[in-house]
Specification:
By secondary structure, the chain is an all-alpha fold. Keywords: Membrane, Transmembrane, Transmembrane helix.
Length: 98
């Protein structure tokens, strides 16, 4: 394998890692937006986004104990989104260096 092929492979891997991290953060951000706009929880799409966000943010869900529920949702799910973004882009940057 030539050096240019190896570089192309790591660039593709870095791009995939970044796209996955962005999608995960977008799902969490979409749930925050749906929650704040009081989306109909009976809707299948809203329920799917909520279930996915709850699974993705299981480690940070209810991590904060604000009095207002909206603040807990924004802080808990927002923290998870930021962690996915930072970790994903950090890993992608490291992959691109090789």
């Amino acid at each position: 394998m030539s050096p240019s092929q190896a570089t192309r492979g790591t660039n593709q891997a870095a791009t995939i890692v970044m796209v996955v991290a962005d999608i995960l953060a977008a799902i969490l951000g979409l749930w925050i937006l749906m929650y704040l706009l009081e989306a109909n929880r009976g809707n299948d799409l809203v329920q799917f986004i909520h279930d996915a966000a709850l699974w993705l943010a299981g480690w940070s869900h209810d991590l904060f104990t604000f009095d207002d529920e909206w603040a807990r949702v924004v802080a808990g799910y927002g923290l998870a989104a930021l962690v996915y973004l930072f970790v994903g882009h950090f890993v992608a940057g490291r992959l691109r260096r090789y």
